Amino acid sequence: MAAEKTAEEKKSRRRRRTVESEPVEVVPAEGKGRATPGRRTQDKKIEGNFITRPLRGFANYLSEVRNELDKVTWPNREDTIRLTRIVLLTTVASALVLGGLSLLAGQYVRIGLDQSVIFVVTFIAIVAAAIVMVRRAG
User: Fold this and answer.
1) Lowest mean pLDDT among 35-39, 51-55, 59-63
2) Is residue 136 helix, strand or coil?
3) Which phi and psi (to 5°) does residue 76 adopt?
4) What is the pLDDT of residues 103-131, one digit of tens each?
5) Helices (H), the chain
6) Contact between residue 75 and residue 83 where contact means Cβ atoms under 8 Å apart
7) What's the whole-model pTM score?
8) How far apart are CA 130 and CA 119, in angstroms?
9) HSE of 74 in the Cβ direction (CA atoms, 13 Å)?
10) 78, 84 in Cβ contact below 8 A?
């Protein structure tokens, strides 16, 4: 309740400031009369010898990686467990579906090698379906 009161007081203070404040005239800044030099065009000062330069570069890389990792919002334990379950269930489901399709394709090829008429009928069905799709699209 106290937090709500302070928030309402802050809003009312802001309103009072905006109502009481006078309009300020905005004046555009004057130009410098020259272009700002880009970083690519500036000469880089290379310090050190052929041994220390790569080591310094690697150290800079590691410090930048650490800085970026400090910015990452890592998931808590509950989120990690929930997301791990989702990944595992998705992996198992896709493995079962792909395994079933592989089993069906293997059985189809085995039966088709025994009776070649099955391959001929399948080929005719595929060609007919392609003709129908081309006619509908055109």
Assistant:
1) 35-39
2) helix
3) -80, 180
4) 999 999 999 899 989 999 999 999 999 99
5) 2-20, 52-71, 77-114, 117-137
6) yes
7) 0.45
8) 16
9) 5
10) no
Which residue has tokens 């009161």? 5
In terms of Cβ atoms closer than 10 Å to its own Cβ (0-12, 13-18, 19+), residue 119 is middle
**How many Cβ atoms sit within 10 Å of the Cβ of residue 82?**
12
Cα(131)–Cα(138) distance, integer angstroms: 11
Q: Are 118 and 111 in contact (CB under 8 A)?
A: yes
Backbone angles phi, psi at 47, to 5 degrees: -110, 155
List pLDDT tens digits, range 63-97: 999 999 999 998 999 999 999 999 999 999 999 99
The span from the CA of 127 to the CA of 121, in Å, is 10
d(CA 123, CA 131): 12
Which residues, 6+ apart, have CB-to-CB distance to 48 below 8 Å? 56
Q: How far apart (Å, rounded) are the C-alpha atoms in residues 105 and 97? A: 12
- Helices 77-114 and 117-137 pack at an angle, to 10 degrees, of 120
Torsion angles phi and psi, residue 111, rounded to 5: -70, -40
